Each structure stands twice: as C-alpha cells, then as structure tokens.
Amino acid sequence: MENNNIKIYRKNLNEASQKADFKEILTISLKILEILPNDYQALLSIAKVYITSAKEKTALKIFKRLIALYGDKDWDIMYYLARAQYQMTETMGDVEPVKKLLQIPKLTKYQKEQTYDLFKRHYILTGDTGLALKYNKRCIEYSTDIDKKHDEYTNYLFNLHYLHNIKAEHLYKEHKKFNNLFSDIPQYEHKMERTGKKKKIRIGYISPDFHKHAVVLFVYHMLNKYDEKYFEVYCYAKCDEDDISRQIKSYVDKWTNILGMSDKNTADCIYNDKIDILFDLAGHTKGNSLAVMARKPAPIQICGIGYFNTTGLKAMDYFLTDVFCDEPGKNDKYFTEQLLYMPHSHFGYTAVDMSWKPKDAACLKNNYITFGSMNFFTKVNSQVIKVWQSILDKVPKSRLLLKDRTVMTPVVLAKIKKRWQKAGLDLNRVDFEIATPDYFKSYYKIDIALDTFPYPGGATTCDALYMGVPVITLKGQRHGARFGYSLLKNIGSIDDCIAYSLEDYVNKAVRLANNYQRINYLHLTLREKMQLSPIMNGYLYMQNLEKKYIEIWEKYTGIEFKINREDKIRSAEIYRQSMQHKQEINILKQLNNDKKFYSNMAEGYTGLGDTKKAAKYYLLASNSVNDIDEKRKNYSAYLFKLLFYKNDILKIVATHKAYQQFFTDVKKMPVKKSNNDKIRIAYISSDFRQNVMFSFYQAMFNKYDKGKFEVTCYCLNKEDVFTEQIKNKVDSWKNLFKVDILRAAKIINNDNNDILFDLSSHTAKNILSILAYKPVGIQISGLGYMGPIGLDAIDYYLSDRYICPNENEKYLPEKQIKMKQSVFCYTAKPDLPESIGAPCEKNNYITFGSFNNINKITDEVLQTWNKILQAVPNSILVLKDHSFISLDTRIEFQKRLENLMIDQQRIYLECADSFYMQRYLEMDIALDTFPYNGGGTTCDALYMGVPVISLVGNNYVSRMGNSILNNLNLGELIAENITEYVQKAINLVNDVELVNLLHKNLRIIMQRSPLMNEKKYIQELEEKYIQILKSRKVEK
Fold first, then answer.
1. 480-531 pLDDT, tens per residue?
2. Domain 564-662, architecture per CATH
C-alpha cells in the first residue's frame, strides 16, 4: 500500500495536470520518484512535460525506461512515445510508431481517436491527403468530447481543400453537416430595442490570430483605419498576446482576450457588449470560435478573410467575398451564408515592415529562369507537379526553387519527393530550401513564382508580388481557388500571368519565361503598382467595407443609417483620390444631381473612358455655373472631349466657334508698336513640364536663331525638372501659374512681343481666356491642341499639308500656317534601348499594341481591332494607359469588351509607367486609334522600332498619323477606311521579314526624316514668322 505522502503527491499531481502547471508537475513527479524510483505516473508525467516543452529527446530517454519497466503494450506509453517522435524533426512523417498503437488490444474510443489523430497529422504533412482525410473521419467518429468533435470536423473540412479533384457540391454538402453539431444549442434573442436607431454601429472581430500571423496582414486596415465617427470596434482575441496584439489593442475601442474562456461565456461576453455586427475571421481554421458564432451572440454575423469557404452554420448571415473570387450569382448556391460582395478585393494587404526591396530579376545575371513557390508543400498535389514539370520541360536550363518548413524533416521530405517523382517531377532541377523568418530574401533568387491550385497562395502571393516577383496563377471555379486571380486583377498590368486552363497556365509561364525584359520590368514595377491598387489602399478598403456594414445594418433594422452630406462628399473625394471613378460617380449621383459636381462627374467619366458622358457633363457644368471662368473652362473641356469621338468636321467647327460667346465683354488690348531689335516670339503653355508636349516643342527652344529672335516663355504650370531644361534655353521666363487672367494678359502685353504662340489651347484651364484680351498683335495656336480654336483673338493655326488638306481650309476659323513637311518635330528621350528585331521572331506569336489614351478607344476602334485579332491566330493586344491604374476603369473596359463579344483573354490592360518606352520593344505592330490618332504615342512607337497602322480621317486629330507616316515615307501603313486598316495590319503580320526590318531600321529612318530635323524645322517656322509679320505690315 502507498503511504500518505504518495497519496497526497498523486492528488496534487492530478490537480497540477488539470491546470497544465508544468513546473509543478515536474516538482511533484520528482518527489514521487525519490520515494518510488520506477513510478509509472511520475515517469509518464515528466515525459509529457518534456514533450510539451519541445524536449523530445529527453522524453525519449524516459520512454525507453518506461518500456523496459512496463513493456510496449501500454497504450499511454506508446502513444506519447509516438507523439514525441511526431514532434521530432528527424522522425516526423514516420507512421510506423503510430501503427504499433493499433496492435495494442482493447483500445477505448478515446485511444482510437487519439491514434487516428496522429495518423492524420503525419499524412497531411507528407501530402497524403486522401489518407489524412480517412483518419480525419475516424477522429470525428470516435470523438467522445463535443468540443473535440467540433475541432476534428473543422479540421476535416479544411483538409478537403487540398484535394485537386473535389467538387464544389461535395464541399458544400460536407460543410452543411457541420451545423448539425449545434442543433441543441440555444441562440440569443435580439430585440429591436437593443439595436434600433443609433449614431454608431458596433463591430466585433473575433479571431485566434490577433498576433504575429498571416491573417493580421489582411485585417490590419479593419482595426486601425475604421471611421470612428460612425463605427466602434471591439476585438475578441483567442490567442497569447505579443507586440502585434498590443499594437492592435491600442487602435480599437475595446479588447477582450477570450483564450481559455468557454464558448458559452465568450458568447455571453459578446452579447453583453451589445455588438451589432460580429465578424469571425477564422472560419474552419485552427482555434476558431464557430461554436461561439453558433449561439448567435450578435444580430448580424459575418465570416471571411481567414477561411475560404462557407462555414455551414445557419447562425452565420454573410460571407465576405469580392466580384473576382465569386462572380455574382455563380457560387451563391455553395454558401449557407449570403455573399457580401466587395467591389474590389476583399483582401486588404498590409506589408510587414522590412528592409527587403525589389531588385533586378535574377535571370539577367544567371542567364536561366528560376521558377519558385513558397506555398506549403501540402498544397502541391500531383496535378500541380505535372503542370510545373511541363513548364520546366519547355524552358531549357530553368530551375524550380521550393521553400517550406518540411524541408528540414528528412522523413517527410523523402516521402514528398517520392510522391512528386512518381507524378513526373525531375528532382535534379529542383532546389529545396528550409523555411526561415527572413524568407523574403529568397525572392531575389526567383524570377517567376508559380501558384498552387486549386488551393492557391494568399499571403505568399501578396508577399511575392510585393517583392516584385510575378505570379502565374490559375483562375479556379470556387471562391478559395480564385485568390490569385482576384489579387492580380486588383493590381492590374499583369493579365499575362492569369491562366484560364492548365494548358494556358503552362503557356503563360513559358511565354513570360522567354521574355527576360518583361520579367525584369515586373520586378521593378510590381511593388509600386500594388501600393497604388485597392489591395493596399486601406482607406479605400475600409470605405467599401463600412459601406457594406451600413447596407446590411439598414436591411436588418429597416432604419436608414444617417451619413451627413459632408461625409458623403468626403467619401467621394477618397474614391477620386483612389481613382475609383465609378464609385465616386455613384456617390455624386446620390447628392440629388447637385450641379456643383457636374465637372467632378465629367472627370470621373473621363477616368472611366466614357468620353460621351464626360462631354455631356462638361457641357452641363458650363451651362449650370455663373462664374465665367468656370463656364469657359468646362466648355473647353467639352470641346476637347468632342474630338475623341466626333468625326464631323462641320459639327466640330460649329461647336468650337460657339466658344466665342464667353468673351463678348472682353476688350482686346491695344497693339503696341514694335521697336525691337529682334523679333520677339513668346510661347505660352500649361505643359512646360513632364508632358507629351515636351517632345514636340524642343526644337523651338534648342535651335532658334538667337541673332534674329528673342524667345520668352510664359509658364502656367507648377515647375518640375523638365521645366528647368526649358528655362535654361530661352531668353526670358515668366511663371504666371498663380497670376489672375487679366493681370497675366497685361504682363504679356507690356512685354511688347511680336508673336504669341499658344501651345495648350483648350487642354488648359485659362490660357485662352488670357489670349482673348489679344495681348499680342499676332497670336497663333497649334501643336498642343489638334482642333479648331474658335476664338477670334487667334489669328493663325500651325499645321501641314497632311494635317490640313486644302479642301478643309474653307471650314476652319483660323488661317492656316502650313509647314512644307511636318507640323511635328519630335525629340526623343535620351538613352533609350534600340530594337534588335521584331519580338514575334522569338515568340512565335504577334503582339499588337496601343499606348493611346483610353478615351481615344471607341467601340468602333475595339471592333476593328477585334477583326485583326480574329484574323491573326494566337495574337494578343496590349493596351497601356495611365487610366488603367484604376480598377474601376479596367472593370468598365472589360464590360465593354464583353458587350462587344471580344475575347478579354487576348487583350492585356496595363497602366502607364516610367518604363513605358521600353515596353514598346515587346510590341510587334502598333495599332493607331481613330478618329483621334496618336501623336506622341505614334512617334514613340516608331522611334522604338514599332510600325504603326493608322486610319486617316477629316479632322486635325484624325490626320496626325497621316502626317507622321508620310514624313517617314511610310504611306503604305496609312489606311483610307476600316476595311483597308484591317487588311494592312494583316498584310504586315504576314510579312514578318518586313516587320523585322522595320524594327531594326525605323529609328534611323526617323532620325533622318523631317520629323526629327530640329534645325530645318525651326528655320522653316522662323521663315513663317517673318512672312506673317511682313504680311501684317502690308495689311496695315
């Protein structure tokens, strides 16, 4: 019999074990061993503590002693031995110790459940998902504790997503069964007096991941950028706290740690806090609180972010998603919740604070491509392996870098390698790396990241993109299979990395791998694009999310939640600054069609590329304001917009002549007699800065005859480094940016200029209002605005015989000054690389391109381009414009493509950037827009070696391509009608030798043409100035 001390020790040991007081367990166990050196309970208790403390090797010594004393048929000894071996790096993945447990007779339900749990853990690590799920089911079957059964079922549901061939219907069915576990649990009642009309909506967030965890990267905005005027935020943290936790705690209104609290008590706490909307951020992930949510402690409950499928709970009202992860109406049937669609990404990513910055792609130095994946190996199924091997086979010398925690576990890694090898992977081309805290630096080794499927990366994809590494992702069918697709769509300019089938996945990866320049471009620009996107715009994200909160709150209460007018205007401004034009317009429409915002709406429609609506609202803005300057400014904008889609020269001229109506009260200034030794030429512009016009007015300042002419510039813009280049070349410089119109006119008038040349016209805000005073006796327009001016104070318009044929002169209000060759003189940016040939020679497909303003791309243009794409198999079209930085703009543009029945997968939308000229090197043929041709973009394309197909029309804007190409003796690229335009493009495609020749020689052709001869250009222009002055004297 045991003495009393031993009995007391055993009692205390049991109490310490229940409290998980490991220090006390060790102390008491050692005391027992002093009396009973071979005591079973004491030895096993110590071994358990060592397992919990990650001292498995020390535990193994004790198990060796226990087996010697009590044999290898004791389940507790053998189970905890197997547990220790599972935790050890050296033996993790080895199921043999677990198999021995099944040889022990008369196992209880609890012992079977624990044994099956170990099997499941081993198999999920080695990627044997089918076996893991088999034992997962047995764990559920044998679980005697209801909380354990909950945990096992959520684990089972989570693991189902690793299967590559599982159907959405089956996933839905299995998730729905989860609700049966809570059929007997009562739910809280929520009466309207608890809710009703209120000034603030109280949001509760519940999560086990409010500490250093990937989920925090996606919920950070929710916790530190919410609108405190209309919302309160309470956090319920089911985790040990760290610095991240403490930081979050400082942001929110209330923080409650529920770790160790029962589900019932947690639910009571939330209910008593009077939470209006409770957001579960975990779903069926480890440590979740779905048993709390099942009790319905809040009247409205949402799930999302941390989990990628339905919860199956009837108590859950909504699931947060976006229009990319779930196309509205398509996946709703697979959710027990109502889908709550964000207009952009439902992810709001916050990058960790780190020193790692994007660098040049590794392939530039290595001369081979390194593909890579940082996803868990469990996601890498046999289908993924087959696709990745196909890519390696098609990209010679390429390698695959894989990084995961299991690389340090030899048994697991060996089994994974064997499985992958069986699926066809050539392990000799794979480099394995152990997961490390500073894993970001491994992205420097990776040129292209390969996403997994159907379980794609979330945080890993964001991290890769943030480090500048492009990610090839497959657009799946269900919510969780489309994370990569949603992220890339939200960032934009990377459509060539989105695959729509397994074959497309391979082709996109291979296509990108063969383009080192494109890879490097993405490495250097992706972070900036990501930072500018909705993914990382916290205020935009929260504005959209809080809008959803208000919508569901109003639906629940039936009471309108009041947002004052000023805050609605503030919301519209956030959307404007975020370049989300459609949402800005929607808010402005809610302001009862307030006339004050017509010009804002016009700007919004301009951003969306809806030129006709932009023109409509600019005209409305002009008609609705009393301020004459605002009338003029908005009418000018209206005229400018007409040029993008109107092809009727009479209509264009008539509307421009109507501009004169705004100057009936303006008195022209007296012309001062010129006594200048030299002819004084003045140029006025709002574009003496980084602007497309910078390439076209250089000759006026670089090569003018300083012996005969004095040049003055009147600047109406903020100055930049480009401005400085001009200032240093001219005789006089005056900045009138903040000077009022009349004073500016007087300054110019007092300077006694002979000729004033307007380089902006209707594209600027107030230049024409200054010129209306006629501060200089001879005033000219042109170059900066390719349309009639309509102001009687403008005497001449600079053009050429290609821009303005003789038959058009009779319609135009200004007298034409026609250059013999080109009205344009193009100055290229320095140090630009030269084309070494057409990309199609290497790619084996044609890349068309148009880098013109989106407002120039009419439906007729799109339909014409589509005919070309249809006639040229496998060809693609790259459209690049600054407007495509806006996701709203991209969405609206893709809707246009869909309405016109144009294949969106063959048209890539990219935003303009500082590498835009280099991007031309990847274009085979440029397609010009019409009726508004490209000017700067056409010259840029040609200078970079890209031939341009252009359609000639009647107006100035529709004849720019005609002038540029004729001055290069490339009239064969000019079409007279749409049929000819299409045919010329096809003919050029069919003559690859010619395309290649043009790529190699177009720059030389341009440099030797009138288009780039600054000396001859300015000499002719100065001759025109002298002729005008002589003719004016004769008239007098």
1. 999 999 999 999 999 999 999 999 999 999 999 999 999 999 999 999 999 9
2. Alpha Horseshoe (1.25)
Residue among 714, 733, 697, 608 at smallest CA distance from 936: 697
Read off the pLDDT of each residue in 265-288 and give the average, rounded to a whole number.
98
Here the tokens at position 553 are 């709150």
Structure tokens of 910? 């990219």
State pLDDT tens for residues 915-950.
889 999 999 999 999 999 999 999 999 999 999 999
- Residue 195 — pLDDT band, cuts 50, 70, 90? low
Residues of the chain with CATH 3.40.50.11380: 193-342, 666-819
Q: Which helix (H) or strand (E) holds 8?
A: helix 4-19
Three-state DSSP state, 918: helix
CB atoms within 10 A of CB 698: 20
- Phi, psi at residue 591, to the nearest 5°? -85, 40
pTM assigned to the model? 0.90
Q: What is the pLDDT of residue 2?
A: 63
Helix (H, G, I), strand (E, B) or coil at 501: coil
Q: Which of 3.40.50.2000, 3.40.50.1000, 1.10.287.3510, 3.30.420.270 would CATH assign to domain 840-1012?
A: 3.40.50.2000
Query: Cis peptide before 931, with omega less than 30 degrees from 0?
Result: yes
Which residues of the chain are in CATH 1.25.40.10 domains?
A: 4-180, 564-662
- In angstroms, the CA 125 to CA 516 distance is 36
Instruction: Note the pLDDT of residue 591.
Output: 86
- Residue 971 and residue 948 in contact, taking contact as beta carbons nearer than 8 Å: no
Fold of 193-342: Rossmann fold (3.40.50)
Q: What is the pLDDT of residues 85-101, one digit of tens each?
A: 999 999 999 999 999 99
Three-state SS for 308-325 is CCCCCCCCCCEEEEECCC
Average pLDDT value for residue range 220-232: 97
Torsional sign, CA 338, 341, 345, 347: negative
755 has a pLDDT exceeding 80: yes
* Class for the domain spanning 666-819: alpha beta
Surface-to-core class of residue 787, CB atoms within 10 Å of its CB (0-12 exposed, 13-18 middle, 19+ buried):
buried
Check residue 1 and give its pLDDT.
Answer: 53
Produce one character per residue of 588-621: b if its CB has 16 or more CB atoms within 10 Å, e if not: beeeeeeeebbbbbbbbbbbbbbbebbbbbbbbb
CATH fold label, 4-180: 1.25.40
Residue 1036, pLDDT > 70, answer no
What pLDDT is stored for residue 3 in this prediction? 77
Residues of the chain with CATH 3.40.50.2000: 363-534, 840-1012
The tens digit of pLDDT for each residue in 153-187 reads 999 999 999 999 999 999 999 999 999 999 999 99
CATH of 363-534, one of 3.40.50.2000, 1.20.1530.20, 1.10.287.70, 2.40.40.10: 3.40.50.2000
In this predicted structure, the answer to whether residue 196 has a pLDDT above a threshold of 70 is no
Tell me the Ramachandran region of residue 763: left when phi exceeds 0, alpha when psi lies from -120 to 50, beta otherwise.
alpha
Rounded to 5°, angle at Cα 533 from 529 and 537: 125
pLDDT band at 193 (very low <50, low <70, confident <90, very high): low
CB 281 within 8 A of CB 206: yes
Q: Which residues pair with 845 in a beta bridge?
A: none
* H or E segment to which residue 503 belongs: helix 502-513
Angle, nearest 10°, between helix axes 936-943 and 992-1007?
110
What residue spans of 832-886 are helical by DSSP H?
840-843, 859-871
Number of Cβ atoms within 10 Å of the Cβ of 252: 19
